[in-house]
Every structure is written in structure tokens, then in C-alpha cells.
Amino acid sequence: MNDRYDVVIAGAGPAGAQCARDLAARGYDVVVLETEAEDEFPRQSNKSTAGTFHSMMGAFGIPDDVVMQYTDSVVLESPMEHYVRDQPGAVLEFADFKRYLVRDGRDDGAEYRFDARVTGPIMEGGEIAGVRYNGDEEVYGEIVVDATGPSAPLAKKLDVVDLRRENHAIGIEYEFEGIDIDRPGFADLRDAMMLRLDHEIAPGGYSWIFHTGGDTAKVGLCYIQNASHQQYGRTEFTIDDYLSHWLETDPRFQNAERLAGKQHRGSAHIQSPGKLHTDRFMAVGDTVPTLDPLWGEGINKCMQSGRMAAVTADSVLKHDSIEPTAENLAVYDTLWHRDVAPNAKTRLLMTQLLYLAPNERYDKLMRDLQRLDDDTLAEANKGNVRAIAKLLEFGDAPLLARLASQHIDLDLGSLL
């Protein structure tokens, strides 16, 4: 095996694999180090709900054969209300999707080393020069990319990321058959991805039903173990208890049966990124973190971050006279904040405010969403402060005050 490459990537998830695809297609020598064994990949890392939007499928050339179900709408539920928005999307078979990214990258020349657990960076002259894995094995690259997710063995040692425990979200999901997809009294979930705001089920978070065809669906929930979770949660409940409670009390699951072997657990951090890069190094995907805080969508964001890192690497490596210093890799920060997560801070504040609200306010929110026009909702989703203000009311002042107490630098006037 070679020990020197243009780019070394740690992690074969959507961000790392997409970065490898783009770089290999440009003719660069790239190697991906993946912890899991190839014959089981991705058993341990098969953790995503895999709900995404058509824009991702087209932008990254994802084939139909990794799609479980194309969807036509997004449904938002509260305890007593719901809101439906036309929004084409796709629910992927996540394992097939990840294997496709690996296979496609290999077809263009990317090298993959499985059973390769990254342990730390190789430093030369105060800069990263390569990666150490499996104890004493080494590989060197002009640029190194950390796409390992929250473990971040390289980014943490280089002080590029600061993933905080209070921003750590956990999730669990099962796949079921026998679900009453169009239950009277509830929204029609045929060909839909549904997100539910209900502290009884997911205190400080949300739950979901993603239709996967017929009477089958992915069902799960996630939450951040923060102040909102402590306020609304039950001290004796684990995340499994909350999911069991939902399954036992929601009539849509009365005749549902779990599909064997279809349980997924995952975690991510919901917070603003700090640094994204340093000399000869970039962090992508959930290492950053990149998850959309409002929708919980991660695949498209991870793929975009991998692509922006590839574009940045190309902008440096194609010039023999340019070194991949932090200054020359700074374009990655610009592209990330412009194209991957614009208005990231405002959208994160929206999410935190949302989780502070009680269930009664969620019911009112569903009614508010129905009265506002599509342009206003689209702008609010982008983080436009004036559009967000149209969703607020005088009674939200205590919630805003609580949010401000958590962010001492927050200007309440910016949200009012």
C-alpha cells in the first residue's frame, strides 16, 4: 500500500465519502480510513433516519435504487394540531446509500482501507502531516480531513472543534410494518415525512414517522439532554422508555410490528461550529457539527460540507506553488457558512426557542403556520429575522427571556 497521498480522509460516512468522490473524480490520490470491517459496513454506523430532499439526490447523483420511498410532503404535528407542506423528498436505505458512495468513489480511483481505526494525527513542525491508525500504522497526506463524526480523534487533538456535552443529542429509531398510515383524526402520512413536537413523547426534542411504503415506516425520536429536557422530561425515563410510551399510546401503532434487525441508534451535536480548519486540515460532517438544527436533516448538509472541503483542497493542490496553510484553506470557512449552513446562528436560536415552548404553544404554532404565506415561511426557515418575528407573539416574551438567559450576548431586539 502507498503511504503518501494528496488527501487522507478519516471516516467513510456521507461527508467523508462525498469528499473522496469529488477528489477522486478530479484525479487526486485520496485514501479513506474507515473503522468498520468492509464485510459488515455500515453495521455500526447505520444510524441515520435517512430522510432527505430531492435537491440532495440531484446535486450528488444519487441513484433510485438506494431509495426506500419518495415522499411528497412534510407534516408537522403537535399534540392536537398538524400542518402539511408540499415538499418532495426521499427516505433512503441508509446502508445501501453509504455503500453506493464507497463503490462510486472507488470507481473513480479513491482507495479505501477498512478495519482502520484512526488514533491520532502525525505532527511535523507543528502541522499535521498524516494520520496514525490501528496503533502504529501511518499514512501521510498533503491535506487531512476528519469526517469521523462526534468522536473527532483528529479535530479534537488539533483543537479545531469543541463538541459540548450539553449540546449532545441522542436518538433511537425502529422500522415497523402494520402502521395505520392514514388514521382518522391524524394527518395523512402516505408519502410523507412527519415530525412531531410533543414533550410527552420527546421532551426537548422531536419524534418522527417517515413513510417507507405500504404500511411500513421508520419511527423514532431524539432529544438534547438540556434544560428543556429536564423541565419537561421524566427523571426515570430513558430514551427507550419514551419511544415505548409513544408506541403504546398512539393508535397508529396499535397493530404495528417491529421489523427484525431494524433498530438504529445515533447521536450528534446541535451547536454552532467554532473553527473548521487549521494548517493542512479540515473537519467536515458531524465532526464540525453540520446537522441542520431546525429540521434535523444531516445527509445533505454532510454531503455539502464534504464537497466544499474537496473544492477547497482542489483550489490549493492544483497549484504547485501554494501550500495548504490555514490561510489558504480559509475558503472552506467561507463556503461552509455561505453554502452549507447560512444563518447558522439564527437558525440554532430558533431551534432552542422552539424546544423551550410548552405543548400548548406547539398547537398554536401549527395554526400560525397555516395562516402565513409560503414566502414568509420559506424566509423564516432560512433564518430571516423579520419573517421569524411574524411567528412570535406577546406571550412568547418569557420564552425569549429564558433564551436570553442562556445566551448573555443575545440581543432580544433582533428577534422582536
TrEMBL record:
GO terms for molecular function: FAD binding. InterPro entries: Dggglyphlred_Halo, FAD-bd, FAD/NAD-bd_sf, Geranylgeranyl_reductase. It holds the Pfam family FAD_binding_3. SUPFAM superfamilies: FAD/NAD(P)-binding domain. It comes from the Archaea. Residues 5-306 form the FAD-binding domain. This is Digeranylgeranylglycerophospholipid reductase.
